[in-house]
Amino acid sequence: MRRYLRTNAVRLAALYFALFAASVSTLLVFIYFSTADFAQRQTEATLDAESRGLAEQYQERGLAGLIEIVADRSVQHEGTERTLYLITDPLLHRLAGNLNAWPAATPIRPGWIKFPVEEHSGTQTEEHEALASVFVLPGGYRLLVGRDLRDAAAFRARIMHTLAWAALLTLALGIIGGVLMTGHMLRRIEAVNRTSERIIHGDLSQRVPVSGSGDEFDQLAQNLNAMLDKIERLMLAMRQVTDNIAHDLRTPLSRLRARLEVTLLEKPDAGRYGEALRDTIAEADRLLVTFNALLSIAEAEAGSRREAWSVVDLAEIARTVAELYEPVADENGLRLAVETDARVPVRGDRHLLSQAIANLLDNALKYTPAGMVALRAFARPDGARVEVADTGPGIPSDRREAVFDRFVRLEGSRSTPGNGLGLSLVRAVAKLHGGACWLEDNEPGLRAVMTLPLVAAEAPVRLPDRSPATA
Amino acid sequence: MKVLVIEDDREAAAYVVKGLGESGYVVDHAAEGRDGLFMATDGSYDALVVDRMLPGMDGLAVIAALRAAEVKTPALILSALGAVDDRVKGLRAGGDDYLVKPFAFAELLARLEALMRRSGGTQPTTKLGVGDLEMDLLTRRVRRAGHDIELLPREFRLLEFMMRRAGQVVTRTMLLENVWDYHFDPQTNVIDVHVSRLRQKIDKGFEQPLLHTVRGAGYRLAAE
Predict the structure, then answer these.
(1) Measuring CA to CA, how many Å separate A77 from each of A125, A129, B221?
(2) B188–A464 CB contact, under 8 Å
(3) Are A11 and A151 contained in the same domain?
(4) Is residue A448 located within the same domain as residue A367?
(5) Do the Cβ atoms of A324 and B181 come within 8 Å?
(6) Using CA atoms, how far apart are residues A418 and A290, in angstroms rounded to an integer?
(7) In terms of domains, do A255 and A346 share one?
(8) Is A299 near chain B, with CB under 8 Å?
(9) pLDDT attached to residue A118
(10) Judgement on whether residues A393 and A347 belong to the same structural domain of the protein
């Protein structure tokens, strides 16, 4: 991992440097050419002006006048910024000018020419390049107006020199910048890696350091930390669920085992064995029901599958559950009253909400010997509210919380079928949906209340997945 | 009737194979998804019982592959995953019914029989009849021996479900799933109360009962 990062960092730095070098070189080459070009063009412009001046003189004063002026100017321009003049006859014999002879090996056609000139300063003789314009005058006379390019060459050399230094400097800066930049990135990535490694080794409480600058690395760190928080929460919930299930199933499993062992201790008898087996199957079935109930509670408590939620109508759910239980109430000689608002939209899982209301109704019908049970579903400003009120014996106020715990069944209710998990599920479902569930005194009887957050009335209510009719 | 059981758990497979054999089916068994797919591909079976988690090839993949090859043998998925989403996934893969493990054998048998009958003919019908009991699906009227029977909407659906499976056992879970779309066990046996109400309406006053209780399994609507 480290090695990979190292090479990656080197590659990144190299890439950065290469890009930097390429752009700087392009820039410098451009500067060089535009500057050098400018110097040359300026020389040409000067020569053009000079030639135009001489041409005017020639028109006014003829060849003799031109020769005179050239001779005159040749003397004036004996200096560093030398302008070169030469007038020759058709046989290239010098008539006037500060060049001794027509430059060797240069064409005699009109136009621009370049040729070497020598300059004598004291004992030294220097040779530089010169640029000149050649004209052919009537009668075959030739005029050369030129300029020593020594200064231009010096200027160009100077630019070259400066640019070379600039290139060196910027490249050096580029290397330093690249190293610093990748080093900075590398350090932050390594911080993430170190944290990850520690988490892999089991310390889930580790978090990626956040520098506080709010840049992309900080966002990455924050997202990673949020993800770790969520994973830690889920793992904790999962552990709690497995612990609870293990604890909750141990008792009935022990009972099952004990019963089988007792049967085995008795005298072998086919009839009794058959009976014991049937009992065991019945017990196993009850265990499975308990197990399924525990699993539903665990799932609701873990809060998974929330993605599949949709907006459902709690009033419709309540009415459907009431319809399922109405014959049961009738059979038990109870009146089941259903009062709901037209629509009570909540966001949630239709199946879990159905099961929760079914559990409340089941309890009320089971523990009410006579009278009535009322199921209500309202949309109140502070939320959706489902109530199941009965006229039964009720539960003493100091026991109303305890019955929500798993497997808690009150004295006197143990003879009725049930596993003591119904209310646990209702509370888990209510909490999962961001609501609450509690018991109240119905005077007389008991009232179970479940509240859920309401969704905005405009939200569309999703119809049940499929109409459960024909198949 | 030939049934192929694709199930890797030896004990569970033996239980299903033995039970189906005793119920009069010719049963083949494959312990692996790929073998099962190979055996089922020729389409000579009347029904498939496919475990969801199989070595080699997942049960849902087997069914999906069969459906892609236009093999329409009805398939019952067995699975330890019982959440509603798992069920939906199973049916989407091409399964025809979904049974959560562990299950009572009677439940498996009832569902398998329902699947095989269903695949026989699925012409849209407007009238159902069992003995002298008639149901008109268009006018939503039910008559027995010429007398009108008034049913609540849910009772109508309950009766319709049973009439479509006349002669077959329907379990309480099947009714709860198909008539109410509930996938949980109500603690009180509410289905029994609904069925006994329905029985009051269709059998009371008639000599021959149509709605029978099948001990340890469920109910059966038949004129016998």
Answers:
(1) 18, 17, 130
(2) no
(3) yes
(4) yes
(5) no
(6) 9
(7) no
(8) yes
(9) 74
(10) yes
